[in-house]
Write a structure and sequence with these properties.
With 951 residues, this protein is an alpha+beta fold. It contains 28 helices and 37 strands. Strands 1, 4, 5, 6, 7, 8, 9, 10 and 11 form a nine-stranded mixed β-sheet that branches. Strands 17, 18, 19, 20, 21, 22 and 23 form a seven-stranded antiparallel β-sheet that branches. Strands 24, 25, 26, 27, 28, 29 and 30 form a seven-stranded mixed β-sheet that branches. The radius of gyration is 54 Å and the shape is elongated.
């Protein structure tokens, strides 16, 4: 029994020893996998017994068991884990989220452990419901946390200023939020599920940045380990009964299995370690006794070698110190070493040169002693971040010795001893003067480019490679109806909405065509832009690709211009050419027709002159025929308006009186009334009052017909000093008076608005189609413009532009003189129509005169000179202005006046508005008579020339 009691503990000892021995021996031959761990429960954390636990640890341990791997956990903060993974100090990192930036640095497993995301937790006293409420708030984040990075980018897009506070753990983040020193903290979802309830914080509805959590290794290393993890994790995820789902329930479900008592495993480990240590020590002492003698013999030799080695080390230390000193002195950046009180202990020559001080002047002083009040606050704020923020980088202005400000970049690092106690800090100081200057120059160039684009006369739209609008200049804003800010991010087809003006069909996106073809393209003909308000404008120009330095297309620029007015002006020119062609035809017809009317009217009048009063019925019929002929005369005068002889007889006109008289004349008894608006100091115009009155009356009549139920016509008159600002004026300079006549009638359909000025085009049942054509011709011959704009159902606006008379000189009409006619005279008549010559002879004889008849200018000159030579001169000559194929009245008058400067000549023409007819005295004529003329008009013209002047 005594032996049994003695052997039992020995048996247990040997068993434990054997177990520990095999463990010791087995692990000594394995290659341990170094695993980076940090505090992020329930993914990974260290429990009260010092063991590493968590969902990611469970899966890793399962894989290690399957692959016979030994795991060695390397603990640290999250930034330290990332640093170790980047430098290869660890083989594997657990609980790491995937991002494009990290994939460039590390190798990741293909299988995803789970999906995580970030969430914001707030202090209960802080009211925050959305990202917009974060403006001006302080936000606590984990150092190097991917959620913090995404959050910063997100707030930058919203242009919301927030102040970030960086901490080494999620616990520290929530502690600061709970204490109220921080408004909001960012933690990941998995950590919050297990730990947020331990803090007096409240979850906000702001959840963002869903990410995949995996395992990672240094790039190019331990790839076989990642493949093993992918293999086993894939099988675990596929099997719903696997330990993967059991671990999920364990860490994220309601019930968690009890843990093994914490004291058993440490006790066994300590006991085994003591036994093993005892055996090792015993063996070591035995060996030491056997070799002690040999070692003593080598002591003197070893000591001598150590002395030599120490001397070499001392030499190397001096060389290393000298090397570091040279590096600090030769670097272009300033070096600043501070003690725990932020006082300067070491500086290099570069820093002295930057600030203009000697080293002795800076030693013992604090950095903020070299800054003004505002920058001193920046220094103190950065110092307050120690020790939570080990590395700090910030811009600050230092004051040089001469008092000037020097912009610098401060890269400060806190120094710790082996016990993590702060022993000081150091900073590298970079002079930013050149960078700031370059940045300012770049900003100025950018501003110049922006101003140039916004000021350019053409519209400019730029897009990215996806067709999203990035910029609109001011002209593009005006044409599209979109502001630059509102348009950014929208699809180009929404902003640049173009159609075929002829068919109304939507055009293909020029942006996509440029991207597909990779070259400059032009917009098709008849392209129209639909603005945001629905208005349509004709446009023209091109789209071009935007390329980067490598000639890769990164966007598209569309440059276009509004050609609406150009098209309208082209239409106006076309109308003018059409009217000119009609004018040529009308002039010829009117001349011949006038001659016929002259014969008819003259003979009717002569017949009336010779019929006795008792023949009343015949005289009545002749007077009716005479009236009908006079109405036909008015029609010929309308046709003459188109001819080259239809120039106006101009005089100074005051528009307010002319416009009112013309409009009121045609509206008596109508349901339509006019409302007038005349600008103060309205300029006068030089115009034919009769013709302009006819224009206004024709337009008013049309407006009256367009409003059968009655309505109002607005007539506005204003001065135009800048013709470029007027949409349809084709001139660049000059002064005009604008007359706008607007009705609220039925309007003019779009399909016929281009035809309303065409001769003989009319929508009225009894219209002649000459009204608006005559208006257009009259305004053109006044060197003016007539335009029309109409919206069906809303009304029509006619706009007249007449050249203004700014000289202030009015034409003074001559006082009519009173004359007394002689009894009879010898009168020569020149006309190419024998019928008219016979009529003229009869008319002159009826008036008591003698008539001499000639067919052209040559006969007139020869006959006049012959009669003068014979002593029986002609008293008066009446000359037709136009002689087809012969010398007309103008040329004949010039030659006749050379023969006899006192010759008395009357001009006659069917072109009543011919410039010679309007200004006959300038061409040597004493009077003018328009065909067809009656006896009264002829007698007045003759009496004007061959009378005795009476005062």
């Amino acid at each position: 029994m005594i032996l049994l009691n003695f052997l039992r503990p020995c048996f247990h000892f040997c068993t434990a020893f054997s177990l520990l021995f095999f463990i010791f021996v087995g692990t000594s031959f394995a290659h341990p996998v170094k695993v980076g761990v940090y505090e992020n429960k329930p993914l990974v954390y260290r429990d009260a017994q010092g063991k590493y636990q968590g969902f990611s640890i469970d899966i890793l341990r399962y894989v290690a068991a399957q692959e016979h791997l030994q795991l060695e956990f390397v603990s640290g903060s999250w930034p330290e884990c990332l640093e170790r993974l980047a430098t290869g100090q660890i083989d594997l990192q657990v609980g790491i989220a995937v991002s494009p930036e990290r994939q460039k640095l590390f190798a990741f497993s293909e299988q995803t452990l789970l999906t995580n995301w970030g969430r914001l937790y707030r202090n209960p006293q802080v009211e925050i419901d959305s990202l917009l409420d974060l403006s001006g708030k302080t936000v606590a984040v984990l150092d190097k946390d991917i959620h913090a990075k995404v959050f910063t980018e997100l707030m930058g897009k919203f242009s919301q200023p927030v102040e970030l506070k960086i901490f080494k753990s999620y616990d520290a983040v929530l502690e600061q939020v709970e204490a109220g020193s921080i408004d909001v903290g960012i933690v990941n979802r998995m950590y919050a599920l297990q730990n947020a309830r331990h803090f007096q914080v409240e979850a906000t509805p702001m959840i963002f940045n869903p990410i995949e959590v995996r395992y990672a290794s240094p790039r190019g290393e331990s790839l076989s380990l990642l493949r093993s993890i992918d293999h086993h994790l894939g099988h675990l995820v596929a099997d719903k009964g696997s330990m993967y789902y059991g671990s999920l329930e364990k860490w994220f479900g309601k019930d968690q299995p009890a843990e093994t008592p914490a004291w058993i495993m440490p006790l066994l480990a300590v006991a085994g370690a003591v036994l093993v240590l005892g055996l090792i020590v015993l063996a070591w002492f035995r060996k030491q006794v056997s070799i002690k003698t040999l070692e003593l013999k080598e002591i003197n030799k070893t000591l001598a070698q150590q002395v030599d080695q120490l001397q070499r080390i001392d030499t190397d230390l001096h060389a290393s110190e000298e090397l570091h000193r040279n590096l600090l002195e030769t670097t272009s950046e300033g070096f600043w070493l501070l003690d725990t009180e932020q006082k300067t202990t070491v500086i290099n020559a570069s820093l002295c040169r930057m600030l203009g001080y000697e080293q002795s002047e800076m030693i013992g002083k604090c950095p903020f002693d070299f800054a003004d009040e505002d920058n001193r606050k920046i220094f103190l704020a950065e110092l307050a971040k120690v020790p939570d923020s080990i590395h700090r980088s910030y811009e600050i202005q230092l004051q040089t010795k001469d008092g000037s400000n020097l912009p610098t970049l401060f890269n400060a690092t806190t120094l710790f001893d082996k016990d993590d106690k702060i022993i000081g800090s150091f900073a590298f100081v970079t002079d930013l003067s050149d960078i700031k200057f370059s940045s300012a120059a770049l900003q100025a160039e950018k501003e110049l480019l922006s101003v140039t684009l916004r000021s350019i006369g053409d519209a400019v739209i730029t897009t990215d490679i996806n067709g999203r609008v990035t910029f609109l200049n001011r002209v593009a804003e005006n044409l599209t109806g979109w502001s630059n800010e509102d348009a950014k991010g929208h699809g180009s087809q929404e902003i640049f909405n173009i159609i075929n003006e002829k068919t109304g069909e939507r055009c293909a996106s020029p942006v996509q065509r440029v991207i597909d073809l990779g070259r400059i393209i032009g917009l098709a003909n008849h392209t129209a832009l639909i603005a945001k308000d629905g208005s349509i404008r004709s446009i023209a120009d091109s789209g071009s690709p935007i390329r980067d330095a490598e000639s890769k297309i990164i966007g598209v620029v569309i440059v276009f211009r509004d050609t609406t007015n150009e098209h309208r002006l082209e239409e106006e020119l076309l109308k003018g050419r059409k009217l000119e062609a009609v004018g040529v035809l009308a002039g010829g017809i009117a001349h011949d027709f006038n001659n016929i009317l002259t014969a008819i009217l003259g003979n009717i009048e002569l017949a009336c002159h010779h019929i006795p009063e008792k023949e009343g019925k015949v005289a009545m019929r002749l007077r009716e025929a005479q009236k009908a002929t006079q109405r036909a005369t008015k029609l010929t005068r309308q046709l003459l308006t188109f001819s080259k002889g239809g120039d106006p007889v101009k005089g100074v006109a005051s528009l307010p009186e002319l416009v009112k008289e013309s409009a009121d004349f045609v509206l008596p008894g109508s349901k339509v009334f006019c409302e007038y608006s005349f600008a103060k100091d309205l300029w006068q115009v030089e115009a034919d009052s009769g013709q302009i009155s006819q224009v206004i009356q024709n337009i008013i009549i049309n407006a009256d017909h367009a409003m059968p139920e009655g309505g109002k016509i607005n007539i506005d008159c204003a001065n135009v000093e800048d013709p470029v600002a007027e949409s349809l004026l084709s001139v660049q300079e000059g002064s005009f008076v604008r007359i706008s006549i607007h009705d609220s009638g039925v309007g003019i359909p779009r399909e016929i608005i281009d035809k309303i000025f065409d001769p003989y085009f009319s929508t009225k049942q009894h219209g002649s189609g000459l009204g608006l054509a005559i208006c257009h011709s009259i305004v053109n011959k006044h060197d003016g413009y007539l335009t029309v704009d109409s919206v069906p159902g809303k009304g029509t606006t006619f706009t007249l532009y007449l050249p203004a008379l700014l000289s202030g000189v009015s034409k003074v009409e001559e006082k009519p003189k009173i004359f007394r006619a002689v009894k009879s005279a010898r009168i020569m008549v020149m006309d190419d129509e024998e019928m008219l010559l016979d009529l003229a002879k009869s008319q002159l004889e009826a008036l008591g005169h003698e008539a001499l008849l000639v067919l052209d200018g040559d006969q007139a000159i020869n006959r006049y000179q012959d009669l003068q030579d014979r002593g029986t001169p002609v008293d008066l000559v009446i000359m037709d202005l136009t002689i087809p194929g012969g010398m007309g009245g103008r040329e004949a008058a010039e030659k006749l006046l050379k023969i006899d400067p006192n010759a008395k000549i009357i001009v006659a023409s069917g072109y009543s508005n011919d410039p010679i007819m309007a200004n006959y005295k300038e061409y040597g004529f004493l009077a003018a008579v328009a065909k067809p003329f009656d006896l009264k008009a002829l007698n007045e013209a003759i009496s004007t020339c061959i009378i005795n002047e009476i005062d």
